[in-house]
Amino acid sequence: MNQPRPPALELRGLTKRFDRPAVDGLDLTVRAGEFYALLGANGAGKTTTLRMVAGLLRPDAGSVSVLGIDALKDPVAAKQITAWVSDEPMIYDKLTPLEYLEFVAGLWGCEAAAAERTARELLESLGLAPHLHERCEGFSKGMRQKVALAGALVHDPRLIILDEPLTGLDAVSARHVKHLLQMRVRAGCTVIMTTHILEVAERMADRIGVISAGRLIAEGTLAELRQQNGQGDTSLEDMFVALVESAPAAA
Amino acid sequence: MRNSAGVMWFAGHEIRLTWREWLGMLTAGRRWRPRSASIMLVAFVIFLHLPAYAVVGRFADVQMPLDRSSLIVITACLFLAWALMLSQAIESVTRVFYARADLDLIMSSPVALTNVFSVRIAAIALTVTLMAMLLATPFIDVLVIWGGIRWLSTYVVVVAIGLSAAAVAIAVTVALFKICGPAKTRAVAQVISAVTGAGFVIALQVAAILSYGTLSRFAVLTSDAAASFAPGGGSLLWWPARAILGDVAALLPLLGGSLLLLGATMAVFSPRFSDYVASVSPKIESRKPAAPRPFRKGSPQRALRRKELLLLWRDPWLMSQTLMQLLYLLPPALMLWRSFDEGAGAFIVLAPVIVMAAGQLAGGLAWLTISGEDAADLVATAPLPAASVTRAKIEVVLILIALLFAPLIAALALVSLALAVVTALATVLAAASATSIQLWFRVQARRSQFRRRQTSSRIATFAEAFASIGWAATAALALVAPLVAAVTALMTAAVIALTWKISPSRA
């Protein structure tokens, strides 16, 4: 009998406090192979949550499980199958895109020849083919974001976490990125993405989670969210605003 | 902005920015009140009077007329101060050209740009002069207290050389713009700035070694040969030296000349500054693409080491900043070559120079590899233990130190094995101490912030300097007074242990 697939991400009682609680006992489950959009107002705790999942922040309490791996007990194993892309692309100015991807592939211990093929395909699919051998120092923010995204995908992760990946991208580049992410999801990969562009969440996400004051206040497919809120044909934007505005009172 | 009132308004804005930048440097970005920072600064300047007395106290009675050797020494010291101010001013002018975030706003506003850039040039001159004044104050005070108020004229000389250094820095940077183009000027200017300050001292040392076989810079300055080449007592060359001794006839023209030079620079270059700044494209000039080559195999640690070396190699400014210490090795290397057959005794002086350079270089490299990580998130999310990442980065530091210092130590071994062993041990200790301190005080920063690394933690900066000096002293003493060397070694180790105890990594 086949074992049930573990969730791509399982958070239980995740808590992080700075001068105030940023993430407050968050429970969240993202199924494997799902495109999950995490929404929330500025300062709601989205980035803090994802940084804890990526191993960039240590939680004060709670657990993080990535495809069945306890990410707090065995962070190296969890990182091996995870990729993180922040809203501010952090790449090396003095490396070319190919050199950057070579470095990433080296960090993840990928086989060199296969990684090079993947790197070239990724950079070409993101429209960076003419710039493969140019140093990144002259790149626009959008180009840098695409290089960072290619870096996240070159080691073939099973869980991709993206924090506002479409910030600064033009329409064509944004379409390239969205297409690439959808292809990954079709190939069985899980994508968790925060975004302020609600249209993107509406069109791309299998499920949407809304976070406020470090807690999940709503979750489901678009249809489920509409049903939960008793508004049959309302837009995600209207629902999001209503949820976020009502959240402090509920909390 | 109305032009007449606008200049004052913009000057006020510049002063506020400069003050906050200074405050940031003094407080290392912490939320100290300006009053506390000022008290700390004043206390530090008062403390500096002690070493200042040790250095210049015995010269307080010097009177005019001076013999040629004294004139040469004073003029050379003033020229060194001028070179250091020029170095700082070139750095400041480069920032004016390339700080686009600020300039985009100013240039897109309806202000008279000539006035704005005049204020900026004046601000550079003021900043350079104030910084020099701050450092010179303890020395001048000592001279005034022990030698009389005639030494107060030294303050005016500092102002004069500060103004002239700023004027020359602007002319140099604009000339570089014309010669090298906007894309290369930044790197070239920064390298020139880095080399200018050290160049004069090193040139003197090289001359001293070639002529007299000693590392002492004063050997050349006080030599008969220098005195015979020097012009007569009435020469313009001696005006600065005469001015600091209170000769008003030399002081006033010196100040007037500097003001005139700065005024002329402002009049000539301010109207053109906006054109120069506009020519600095935010895009980097296209360069020849890198040659395609297949991805290389290797462990994650190897990928990290390769990346660190490649980034350092490709950044001429960082390279010049980090490798500056190597310039100071040039004179000892030359001395080693010149006096190879004179026995170990002649070379004991080399051990501390080598050890100091290794410690300082290791500190700079360790900051770049450990703290100056431009893709910190990427490295932190890579599937390897944090300890492996740190180890790979430390290996880069140690590999570079070994590569750079092994040949010198090997050459020492040919002269004296004991000297080479002691120097090698102290070099390893100095490099390890500096690297450890950077590790304990690691911060997350961009490589471009390297210039400000010393302001991020005062404790780390002083501890690193003390460790290098301590191990250098230990190396020098180990061969002549081993018991004293044991004491300095223990003191250095104690300071390092204390630094570790209070470091944030222990928190």
Report on the structure:
The complex is a heterodimer of chains A (251) and B (507). Chain A has 251 residues and is of the alpha/beta class. Chain A contains nine helices and ten strands. In chain A, the strands form two sheets. Chain A has a six-stranded mixed beta sheet, with helices on both faces. Chain A has a four-stranded antiparallel beta sheet with strand order 2-1-4-5. The longest helix of chain A is centred in the C-terminal third of the chain and has 16 residues. Chain A starts with 8 loop residues before the first strand and ends with a helix. The mean pLDDT of chain A is 88. With 507 residues, chain B is mainly alpha-helical. Helix content of chain B is 77%, strand content 0%. The radius of gyration of chain B is 25 Å and the shape is globular. The termini of chain B are far apart. The N terminus of chain B is likely disordered. At the A-B interface, helix 2, strand 6, helix 3 and helix 4 of A face helix 12 and helix 17 of B.
How would you briefly describe this protein structure?
The complex is a heterodimer of chains A (251) and B (507). By secondary structure, chain A is of the alpha/beta class. Chain A is built from nine helices and ten strands.
Structural class of chain A: alpha/beta
Mean pLDDT of chain A: 88
Radius of gyration of chain B: 25 Å
| Helix and strand sequence of chain A | EEEHEEHEHHHEHEHEEHH
Determine the mean pLDDT of chain B. Answer: 80
- Dominant shape of chain A: globular
Order of adjacent strands in the largest pleated sheet of chain A: 6-7-8-3-9-10
Number of strands of chain B: 0
Low-pLDDT residue spans of chain A = none
Helicity of chain A, as a percent range: 25-40%
Radius of gyration of chain A: 18 Å
Low-confidence spans of chain B: 1-5
Oligomer: heterodimer
From the N-terminal CA to the C-terminal CA of chain A, the straight-line distance is 43 Å
